[in-house]
Write a structure and sequence with these properties.
The protein is mainly β and about 120 residues long. Helix content is about 0%, strand content about 35%. Strand 2 and strand 3 form a beta hairpin.
Length: about 120
């Protein structure tokens, strides 16, 4: 396991992306915020079969409740508005410091109907 400064918290969600409430993630490149994790999860649809579930808690300031990743207007960059660190939505890797660690990613499994997110 790779070290991550963001604390691990139990996550066990089942979502149904084909449901109209998930219209923002019904096509590759779509994203939305969902409840779960510590400060919420960014759900990103990478392809028809693959999703990425990213914890919004900043890996640079994990104890600061205001330091949460927000999707920027380019729909690609995630930014912690406290430290101004940025990450890529497709894999949560750092694109600009001061953060040096990626955001925490939760396991996701999509069977064409149900999307299970857990750790």
């Amino acid at each position: 396991t790779v070290y991550n400064p963001v604390p691990s918290t139990p996550v066990s969600l089942t979502l149904y992306p084909n449901d109209p409430v998930f219209s923002k993630v019904q096509y590759p490149g779509g994203w939305m915020y969902v409840n779960g994790g510590i400060n919420g999860i960014i759900l990103y649809r990478k392809s028809n079969e693959e999703f990425v579930a990213i914890e919004r808690t900043s890996s640079y300031l994990p104890d600061d409740k205001n330091a949460i990743a927000k999707v920027q207007s380019d729909n690609f960059t995630l930014k912690d508005t406290v430290s101004a660190s940025t990450w890529r939505i497709i894999d949560a890797t750092v694109t600009k410091g001061p953060a040096t660690y990626p955001l925490r990613i939760y396991s996701s499994n999509f069977d064409g109907n149900a999307l299970r997110i857990n750790n």
